[in-house]
Description:
Elements (H helix, E strand, L loop, with lengths): L2 E5 L5 H10 L2 E5 L4 E3 L4 E3 L2 H8 L4 E2 L9 H6 L3 E5 L7 H4 L6 E5 L11 H7 L4 E8 L9 E8 L6 H25 L31 H10 L6 E5 L2 E12 L8 E5 L2 E6 L2 E9 L6 E2 H6 L3 H4 L7
Parallel strand pairs: 1-2, 1-6, 2-5, 6-7
Antiparallel strand pairs: 3-4, 7-8, 8-9, 10-11, 11-14, 12-13, 13-14, 14-15
Amino acid sequence: MKIVFMGTPEFAVPVLENLINNYEISLVVTQPDKEVGRKRVLSPSPIKEVALKNNIEVFQPKKIREDYQKIIELKPDLIITCAYGQIIPKEILDSPKLGCINVHASLLPRLRGGAPLQHAIIDGEKESGVTIMYMDEHMDTGDIISTIKYKLKSDETYKSLHDTLSPMGAKLLMDTLPSIISGTNPREPQDEEEATYAYTIKREEERIDFNKSVTEVDNLVRGLFDNPYANFTFNGEEHKIVKGHFEKKENTTPGKIIIPNKKSMGIECVDGIYFIDRIKPFGKKEMDITSYLNGLNIDAFNGKIVNR
Length: 308
């Protein structure tokens, strides 16, 4: 049986590795190599590294909508995708006899889109999970084959959710594939009235709005940990919050910096204070708040308003 796998980031690695251990993968499709870091070193995707390590042919079209003939000519029996990063054209979807299936990191129809892990935390979801689904021409709207649920912890971060759901998704796929291959799998249409969306986080959405509640601020900080981090600006410089905690309080001034001592720094929100435990100042490495305050002119910060 000819299987084509399409994926790109670290999240998809356990999925591909499990497939390699149990099936024969004819081709791996992933995004083109990208420049990484300050030195702009051209680097392969995590999925490409796994494929090359296992001597599997790699195909890296810049635009899959325009460059897909190689996949069609292979005449695959099944195409499996996981966080590939581009919309798959109809020509590819129609090519395999067993269809195209996707491993999606949410409980569809909730959080369709490219950033379900981040939005699960940012949006205050109580549970998340993985869905195996058939693909169609629209974004994550195909029939559901199987799901697995996961209850989010109160201190869940993007990183912890990523590291939990990735192997869960790989196992769910392995448990589901035999029924797909035999044609005995269930398929359930999605309820459009229940649909929500998890679009890719924009750069401006990483900026913390302290006019929101402390819970919403905490959700954003945890949802963007450990990349790219939520941030605020002061004196024209961006400061990234790595970790924090909050306290409820009345009569606050949103955005006001509170430094009660050399070991504590908070910023007032609409209903409390968000205290920073770890911070990454502009151009510096991340550090705990005590180390940060030791090198700071506290009087120049205390009582001032951020994001101006």
